[in-house]
Design goal:
This is Putative beta-lactamase. InterPro entries: ARB_00930-like_C (IPR058664), Beta-lactam-related (IPR001466), Beta-lactam/transpept-like (IPR012338), Beta-lactamase-like_AB/R (IPR051478). Keywords: Signal. With about 575 residues, the protein is of the alpha+beta class. About 25% of the residues lie in helices and about 20% in strands. It has 13 helices and 21 strands. It has an eight-stranded antiparallel sheet, with helices on both faces. It has an eight-stranded antiparallel barrel with strand order 11-12-13-15-16-19-20-21. A hairpin with a 2-residue loop joins β15 and β16. The longest helix has about 30 residues. It is globular and about 90 Å long. The structure holds 2-acetamido-2-deoxy-beta-D-glucopyranose (NAG) (12 copies). The site of one 2-acetamido-2-deoxy-beta-D-glucopyranose has 5 residues, from loops.
Length: about 575
């Protein structure tokens, strides 16, 4: 065998491989799906058993007081974008909330207040209406009042020309959280008795949600926002801001030349037929609504006015499902824009949470199978909301092409929403991972060999406790190519050193073809060489496409699929310039 790699090249790739050694899992997959999302999840054993078991998980949680079974009602929905199926739907009308359902039943079309889940509708409308053109523009381009604002004192004045539309959308602008909302001075309470100074009238917000206040006009709202100190410098650290989303509402009005209501209606309500979602309360003759207790104190009919884009909207389990499916399908956005949108914009101080626009990203450490504690990272893109007794959450799992919604109403709505979201994630995400594994086995596992001779052969297998498609045998022209790679990448012929070659989907498809990239790792891992901060790395992403032969990556694989069932019929390990047909 001849080698053309320089020792420098061998050294540099060997060091990439070494850096993966300290993984707690046996392999370091790329971030993202380890198998293609299942095409027919509803047909899989794992999803069947999740459907069978989940009602009992809920019933047990209700009877064991893990869920408040008396004073909190809820609606949940789990759906798959691969087949557009509802995998699971469940409604619980709490017995102590009798009278909360004027229409007499709780179902997929019952209207809840959704609080800050409204922000997702707002960000989606902005993307649908303006694409990615203005994401990095300063907000001053669209909201003249902000362009005019004083910037003299950086502690007192937000530097609006440094603040982009995307910064507002991702809570990275550092601007005030609210104006008037939650301002104690607007409440009817003797705060002076608690040690707070007595205010003169000019210091008390003249509009907003307090007793006797009327809603803020645009002029009043922006004047109020400008009166408030920024919290932090732009792009410094995520600071949750309702005001940021109220301002995005004005940006949408400028970009579209329409008022916010028309923009969201023509942008998403109409195209998706979200016929039971709205900015204002449904008419009083609409009885398929939920009001747990007194409508006034629960603010069911309260007009969110300036804060509508941030938290004022109404929706149903059915409409939120439709919205989630549309995002997963990229039905209103170019797919590349959806992928860009569904990425973090900042870390948070919690290693398992990140922030997007306005995604609240939960990083789930998903076991690779039921038989191992080895995990991989699955990102769940969520947006939650809270308003008085209402809480909500939409979760999307792009790795598996599924989503879920949780709507709660009642005494423990906020906590109940997260408990339900956790129960859903812990049952359905592993079920979909198993479904993906089941399907990948049927679609890709087997032996592929060259026409007429088996001198070139690749065998693909799946292992329960490992990610990706495992290339367990790779013969090129009669030569064991796994040994070749071991020599090229790790400079060894030692039989105790094993080369792990695992294929991960790239999400690139063309016609009936779909591409994968291999991740090469040397197993078993050597003892950790590097100590300290850089020791615990899973960094295989840096070495993908690292070595090429005549401009084709050693790790470049393409499957040709059967046009109807999606089963692989052919494999091209592209570096070998040969097509292998599936034999078994
Ligand atoms: C590769 O291994 C051989 C024999 O073990 C050794 O002589 C050579 O220095 C190694 N090359 C590199 C670049 O490590
Ligand atoms: C509600 O919880 C209580 C206390 O755990 C339990 O006794 C009761 O059976 C539960 N009711 C329902 C409907 O689950
Ligand atoms: C699911 O819905 C999307 C968007 O409406 C559509 O493009 C797709 O063909 C549907 N898929 C199936 C399997 O029905
Ligand atoms: C900007 O400031 C000028 C001078 O104070 C004022 O005349 C104008 O109306 C302001 N424009 C906006 C949009 O607030
Ligand atoms: C408001 O009260 C403060 C003292 O708390 C005083 O210094 C200030 O002049 C007052 N402003 C007005 C407009 O009355
Ligand atoms: C829109 O949704 C409503 C109620 O959810 C339904 O009755 C109607 O048929 C839908 N319209 C279209 C065009 O799908
Ligand atoms: C409510 O009343 C309006 C007219 O005021 C009518 O158009 C609408 O169909 C009614 N809706 C229901 C659910 O009865
Ligand atoms: C997973 O971890 C638990 C708790 O540490 C342990 O009891 C169990 O044996 C482990 N399972 C496997 C398959 O390693
Ligand atoms: C190649 O192997 C397959 C089974 O893997 C076998 O069916 C076929 O006859 C073999 N072809 C040749 C030319 O040996
Ligand atoms: C080497 O890897 C292959 C493919 O993953 C596996 O079948 C084999 O058991 C491994 N051998 C050793 C010695 O670990
Ligand atoms: C298959 O490999 C053997 C051994 O390398 C070689 O002698 C033979 O010519 C090859 N057959 C074909 C058709 O390439
Ligand atoms: C995909 O495969 C089907 C048969 O399975 C074939 O009819 C169709 O032409 C293929 N499409 C492309 C783009 O190759």
């Amino acid at each position: 065998m001849k080698f053309s790699l320089s020792s420098v090249a061998i050294f540099s790739l060997a060091s990439f491989v070494a850096i993966t050694n300290s993984q707690s899992t046996q392999n370091c997959p790329l971030l993202g799906p380890i198998f293609p999302a299942p095409l027919n999840p509803a047909l899989s054993k794992a999803v069947h058993s999740a459907k069978r078991n989940f009602p009992q998980i809920l019933t047990e949680a209700l009877s064991a007081s893990i869920l408040d079974n008396s004073t909190t009602s809820f609606s949940i929905n789990v759906f798959s974008a691969s087949d557009n199926q509802t995998l699971f739907t469940y409604h619980y009308a709490a017995p102590a909330l009798s009278g909360s359902l004027p229409g007499g039943s709780l179902n997929d079309n019952t209207i809840y207040r959704i609080g800050s889940l409204s922000k997702l509708f707002t960000a989606y409308t902005l993307l649908v209406k303006a694409g990615n053109l203005n994401w990095n523009d300063p907000v001053t381009k669209y909201v003249p009042e902000l362009a005019n604002a004083s910037t003299a004192n950086p502690i007192a004045n937000s530097q609006w020309s440094d603040i982009t539309v995307g910064a507002l959308a991702s809570h990275m602008a550092g601007v005030t959280r609210d104006y008037s909302l939650f301002d104690l001075s607007t409440q009817d309470y003797p705060f002076a008795a608690l040690g707070l100074p007595t205010l003169n009238t000019s210091e008390i917000p003249p509009c907003g949600f307090g007793p006797g206040l009327t809603s803020c006009s645009r002029q009043q709202y922006l004047k109020g926002v400008l009166s408030r100190h920024p919290v932090t410098a732009p792009f410094n650290t995520p600071i949750y801001s309702n005001a940021g989303y109220a301002i995005l509402g004005y940006v949408i009005e400028t970009v579209t030349g329409k008022d916010f209501s028309e923009a969201i209606t023509s942008g998403i309500y109409q195209p998706l037929n979200l016929s039971r979602s709205s900015l204002l309360a449904p008419p009083t003759n609409d009885t398929n609504i939920i009001i747990p207790g007194d409508a006034t104190s629960n603010a069911f009919y309260l007009d969110g006015s300036a804060e509508i884009p941030a938290g004022g909207m109404y929706s149903t389990a059915s409409d939120i499902r439709t919205l989630g499916l549309s995002i997963l399908h990229s039905s209103l956005l170019p797919p590349a824009l959806t992928r860009r949108w569904m990425k973090p914009m900042s870390h948070t101080s919690n290693v398992l949470n990140a922030v997007g626009a306005p995604w609240e990203i939960a990083r789930m450490q998903l076991p690779l199978s039921p038989y191992t504690n080895d995990t991989r990272m699955v990102d769940i893109y969520t947006k939650s909301g809270d308003l008085t007794v209402y809480s909500s959450l939409l979760g999307l799992v792009p790795d598996h092409n599924i989503g879920f919604s949780v709507l709660t109403a009642g005494k423990s709505s906020g906590l109940q929403r997260y408990t339900l979201a956790s129960l859903i994630s812990e049952t359905w995400v592993p079920a979909l991972e198993s479904a993906a594994r089941e399907e990948a086995t049927a679609r890709f596992a087997g032996t592929y060999s060259s026409d007429g001779t088996n001198n070139s052969t690749v065998t693909i297998e799946l292992e329960d406790n490992r990610p990706g498609l495992d290339v367990t045998r790779w013969i090129s022209d009669g030569i064991d190519f796994r040994s070749t790679l071991k020599l090229l990448l790790d400079n060894t012929t030692d039989p105790s050193v094993n080369m792990s070659i695992r294929l991960y989907p790239t999400s690139l498809t063309a016609g009936n073809s779909t591409s994968f990239r291999a991740v090469f790792e040397t197993l078993p891992y050597e003892p950790i060489q590097t100590k300290g901060v850089f020791a615990s790395n899973c960094e295989t992403w840096v070495s993908v496409d690292g070595f090429t032969y005549g401009s084709i990556g050693l790790d470049d694989f393409e499957f040709v699929l059967d046009g109807t069932l999606g089963k692989a019929v052919e494999l091209k390990p592209r570096v070998l310039r040969t097509n292998l047909l599936r034999r078994a």
